[in-house]
Amino acid sequence: QVQLVESGGGLVQPGGSLRLSCAASGSIFSIRVMGWYRQAPGKERDLVATITKIGNTNYADSVKGRFTISRDNVKNTVYLQMNSLKPEDTAVYYCNADLTTGRGYVDYWGQGTQVTVSS
Fold first, then answer.
1. Beta carbons of 69 and 57 less than 8 angstroms apart
2. What's the pLDDT score for residue 117?
3. Residues 6+ apart with CB under 8 A from 75
4. What pLDDT is recorded for position 4?
5. Which neighbouring-strand residues pair with 116?
6. pLDDT tens, residue by residue, 33-66
7. Contacts by residues 73-77 (CB-CB < 8 Å, ≥ 24 positions apart)
8. Banded pLDDT at 8 (limits 50, 70, 90)
9. Phi and psi dihedrals of 77, rounded to 5?
10. For every residue of the chain, which 3-state class applies, written as one string?
């Protein structure tokens, strides 16, 4: 019933920008935390950024100053603005939401979207 749908991935040159979106839909009562994670081939899935319902943010050191996470609580959507992209940012990016439909909080994941930074 609950679904997270991502969009905005693609190919970009080093130094370029990209904006990812993730919309949560279904019988959602509240979303506590939303975030972005990424996974490169042969690597662990790592946290990129998280944002609480009231807007408190947390970033991986590798993206601080370059990426900005935000959310729209009316649309149940989280965004990731990625600037000054580097080849090492190349990965599949996954949206995550810690949400409740009324019976406790559960993690949900988006389908993943490929971000490739290459010249």
1. yes
2. 98
3. 23
4. 97
5. 11
6. 999 999 999 999 999 999 999 999 999 999 999 9
7. 73/31, 75/23, 76/23, 76/24, 76/25, 76/28, 76/31, 77/21, 77/22, 77/23, 77/24
8. very high
9. -125, 140
10. CCEEEEECCEEECCCCCEEEEEEEECCCCEEEEEEEEEECCCCCCEEEEEEECCCCEEECHHHCCCEEEEEECCCCEEEEEECCCCHHHCEEEEEEEEEECCCCEEEEECCCEEEEECC
Amino acid at 72: D
Q: 45 to each of 6, 36, 40, 94, how far by Cα in Å?
A: 17, 10, 8, 9
Separation of alpha carbons 97 and 15, rounded Å? 29
Strands lying side by side in the sheet with 67-72: 3-7, 18-25, 77-82, 67-72
